[in-house]
Design brief:
The protein has about 230 residues and is of the alpha+beta class. Helices cover about 25% and strands about 30% of the residues. It has 2 domains: about 180 residues, BirA Bifunctional Protein, domain 2, CATH 3.30.930; about 40 residues, SH3 type barrels (Roll), CATH 2.30.30. Helix 2 crosses helix 4 and helix 3 crosses helix 4. It is globular, with a radius of gyration of 17 Å. The N and C termini lie far apart (about 35 Å).
Length: about 230
């Protein structure tokens, strides 16, 4: 597929026309209007990067929050397979993947018609966009001499398959533990933007639903279900 607005939007359009087999993968060489989790944020990119949406049915017994962390772990694993262990690689809640504190991958999961879920994944392989975010962007080629979209996609599919088998055999707790091992800010003071306000506290853990547990300065425990880590 050539340049399109967004792989998620393309998937939605084709689902509404009942023009897609399920499951399937839609990929583009470039996209111009890729959407982020927060309104007004664009995930733009040129050729050489991965822009893909997996259209599938929600796996039985998996919550939407579970799926978000599951995909984040798979992207983390696939990026780590190309990056030296001395380079910092973390996941910012819930599913931004950061290389040396710079965004290398983003995930957008949405519900679609016919009981489908759309798993949009963008990974900066050859180049990085300029972002108006607390975390600027980077790409894999800033850290390694050569990696193709095909090589990265193969690694990602392998990671998704391995993690899905682990989830089926051991339950979501295995995904939860893996996500926390690569979490940015776990055990540290972090700041959240929630709507027009904000909150600070110690990032203690994730609860079984995948929500972030924050201990406030007054020792009150607050469960964060949505918002943006600053």
């Amino acid at each position: 597929m050539g340049t399109i607005d967004s792989t998620n939007d393309e998937a939605l359009r084709r689902l509404e026309k009942e023009d897609l087999p399920i499951p399937c993968l839609i990929a583009a060489r470039a996209q111009t209007q890729g959407r982020g989790r927060h309104r007004g944020r664009l995930w733009l990119g040129e050729e050489g990067n991965l822009f893909a949406t997996c259209v599938t049915k929600m796996p039985e017994g998996m919550l939407m929050t579970h799926l978000s962390l599951f995909v984040a772990c798979a992207v983390y694993r696939s990026v780590r397979s190309f990056i030296d262990s001395s380079v910092s690689l973390t996941v910012k809640w819930p599913n931004d993947v950061l290389l040396n504190d710079q965004k290398v991958a983003g995930i957008l999961i949405e519900t679609g018609p016919h009981d489908t879920v759309l798993i949009g994944i963008g990974v900066n392989i050859a180049s990085a966009p300029v972002l108006s975010l607390p975390h600027q962007a980077t790409c894999l080629k800033a850290f390694i001499s050569h990696v193709t979209i095909e090589q990265y996609t193969s690694a990602l599919m392998h990671a998704l398959e391995a993690l899905f088998k682990a989830w089926k055999n051991q339950g979501f707790s295995v995904i939860l533990m893996e996500w926390q091992r690569c979490a940015q800010g776990l055990g540290q003071r972090i700041s959240f933007r929630i709507g027009q306000g904000g909150v600070q506290g110690i990032f203690e853990r994730l609860n079984p639903d995948g929500h972030l547990v924050l201990r406030l300065p007054n020792e009150e425990v607050r469960v964060i279900t949505s918002g943006e880590v600053q």
